[in-house]
Design a protein that fits this description.
By secondary structure, the protein is of the alpha+beta class. It has helices spanning 2-8, 51-54, 93-212, and strands at 14-17, 22-35, 38-48, 62-70, 75-78, 82-85. The protein has a domain at 2-91: SH3 type barrels (Roll). Strands 4-3-2-1-6-5 form a 6-stranded mixed beta sheet, with helices on one face. This is PRC-barrel domain-containing protein.
Amino acid sequence: MAESQQANQLVNKFVVSLTEGQILGYVTDINVEVDHDQFYFIFKIKTLENLAKTGEVQTGMFSSERKIRIRPSDIVNVGPDVIILGNGQVPPIREIEQLHNIASEYNALVKELEHKERVIAELKEENSKLIKQMDELTRELKRLQVIKEDFEHLKEQLIKQEGQLEMAKEYIRLLEGLRHDIDQIKADVETLLKGYIEDAIRRIVNEELNARGLKKTLL
């Protein structure tokens, strides 16, 4: 049968699914199954393990066998070593390239976003430090404001005391002037009193001498 001959050409090949985007396994045997007017290939395959770690097919990567059922129309292409499945259609190359470009741009955006997140984290930490410094400066400013208010109050008191001191100095100068005037008046009074006393004594002595018939005193 043509189906059997075609099936024999599919043995000992890798099966790659474009729709799933992975290697399904390695075909070790194949049977043909007919269901009504449709026939199917029953692939007996060994699945691969740990392929993602190395990216290469090596001995020991094959695990237990399993069977998959496919229609001939699911086969896109058959090469010397690979059977390509894709529901009978090859995905558009341009769309694949676009998806690859989108994936590359997405990865670049993710890296940029991670970088910006690190920058944001650093900025948040720096902002936290600045807020702490701002709080400390605010407290220091309040303390300086209190000191300034106390200084202004002391300044007002000092100005007031300086004014009172200047008034006291003026009062002292006034008292000194009055003392000088008082001393002058005192001296004048003493002079007047001295002259008055001398005149009174002279008059009394002269009267006494006259009474005795003596000459007047020269005092």
